[in-house]
């Protein structure tokens, strides 16, 4: 007796795109007094949102740079603050072309919050700040899945969905997805 399988299409929401980007950017801040030395530099108040943009996702955000510095031959200190806006374009290294564009939702996660790597006084009395940040993004949308359907009544059959650890011994680890 041969079984004839049928195919069905199921529409579901799924992750249809993923991307990740690490970047280093340099900002220049001009304090009200010419700095003698940098005593500290940090980033606070980071806010961002993600939007779909062509074949990628753009992360649009702001953060405040605070620089604690000395001036007047290291006899005075002050904190200079500057708000920075940015747009980070993140390409999708995976994109399912079968998704429905009208159902797209995008998310972004700062896997590394913006942080100061280096701050130094330039020759013209400004402060150069090097900042690192990293984002992981996902595109969720409706897509179609094809499934095989076994004819007959499912109630007539017994299924054992349990698994033994031996079931995984013959798996080829090279076939597993690295991003799970």
Task: Give the tags.
single chain, 180 residues, mainly beta, 4-stranded antiparallel beta sheet, 3-stranded antiparallel beta sheet, 7 strands
Sketch the major β-sheet. 4 strands, antiparallel
Reading side by side through the largest sheet, how are the strands ordered?
A: 5-1-7-6
Low-pLDDT residue intervals, each spanning 5 or more residues: none
Helix content: under 10%
What characteristic shape results from the CA principal axes?
elongated
Amount of beta strand: over 45%
Chain-wise SSE layout:
Layout: E1 6-29, E2 35-53, E3 56-71, E4 76-91, E5 94-95, E6 105-121, E7 127-149
Antiparallel strand pairs: 1-5, 1-7, 2-3, 3-4, 6-7
Can you give a write-up of this model?
It is built from no helices and 7 strands. The protein is mainly β and 180 residues long. It has one domain (10-147). The strands form 2 sheets. A 4-stranded antiparallel sheet has the order 5-1-7-6, with no helix packed on it. A 3-stranded antiparallel sheet has the order 2-3-4, with no helix packed on it. The chain is elongated and about 90 Å long. The mean pLDDT is 87.
């Amino acid at each position: 007796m041969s079984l004839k399988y049928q195919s069905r299409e199921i529409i579901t929401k799924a992750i249809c795109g993923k991307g990740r980007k690490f970047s280093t950017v340099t900002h220049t801040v001009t304090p009200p007094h010419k700095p003698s030395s940098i005593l500290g530099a940090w980033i606070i108040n980071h806010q961002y949102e993600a939007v779909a943009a062509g074949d990628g996702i753009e992360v649009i955000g702001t953060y405040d740079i605070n620089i604690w510095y000395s001036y007047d031959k290291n006899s005075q200190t002050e904190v200079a603050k500057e708000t920075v806006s940015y747009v980070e374009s993140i390409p999708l290294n995976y994109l399912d072309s079968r998704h429905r564009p009208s159902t797209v939702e995008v998310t972004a996660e700062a896997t590394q919050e913006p942080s100061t790597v280096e701050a130094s006084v330039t020759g013209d009395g400004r402060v150069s700040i090097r900042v690192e940040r990293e984002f992981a993004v996902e595109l969720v949308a409706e897509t179609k899945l094809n499934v095989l359907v076994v004819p007959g009544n499912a109630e007539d059959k017994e299924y054992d969905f349990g698994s033994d650890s031996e079931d995984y011994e013959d798996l080829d680890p090279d076939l597993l997805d690295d991003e799970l």
